[in-house]
């Protein structure tokens, strides 16, 4: 059986150690006694915190308390970003099975959820057109042209559904980081690409078994590491060099480790009552 292309990334300098460290922290979380009976509560809280952090990375930095209190977010643009992230993170359970067979279909659905109210209805779930502006952090530079985006997304989808990936030893975290980085680099939609990219990362972590219950909060890890570090790591991935890609995967591994600690904090809070 031919080696899957993602395997080369798993062997880059520092990646294996970073992945192992993050995996150990996630395993510690998954062994917490609270998850034996209350995993659904932890998953729900993880989704809420993940949505909050993902929206914050896109500039809508609302507190958890404010998000819990609100029933209507549509009064201001940043509220629409938060509302979109909440919709995305609430629908993971329905998207997992489709993700494993048709990841591009799921990416489109994620955009529909994330961008409602931010884009015209006819643009929801649709790849951006030539010349169409892209909302997003200017630190990432100009996105690729739509024709390149289409080719690279099709290649990514092909790699994700190949049997060689399912049967390979490529760590879930490496796959998640590459999916996250590629969507962030391509910015296939006119807006909300960051929320979509981070949601895709979480779908991979769940579907490939690193965090099958979705109880860690990797988005909170990215938020804690800081938006500047996040953008810098993304630019390294976009450079396409082995060192740049390795730096991005290590950054994602650090975020996953922090997210596991966030999940542990949720478990401890539930245990204390």
Structure, described:
This protein is 69% helix and 0% strand. With 273 residues, it is mostly helical. The chain has a single domain (6-127, 145-272), classed as Fido-like domain (Fic-like fold, Orthogonal Bundle). Helix 3 crosses helix 12 (218-225), helix 7 crosses helix 11 (193-207) and helix 8 (146-161) runs antiparallel to helix 10.
Give a quick precis of the structure.
This is Oxidoreductase. The chain is an all-alpha fold.
Strand and helix map with partners:
Elements: H1 6-10, H2 15-30, H3 35-57, H4 64-69, H5 77-90, H6 92-101, H7 103-115, H8 146-161, H9 163-166, H10 172-186, H11 193-207, H12 218-225, H13 227-239, H14 242-272
Helix pairs in contact: 2-14, 3-5, 3-12, 3-14, 5-7, 6-7, 6-11, 7-11, 8-10, 10-11, 10-13, 10-14, 12-13, 12-14, 13-14
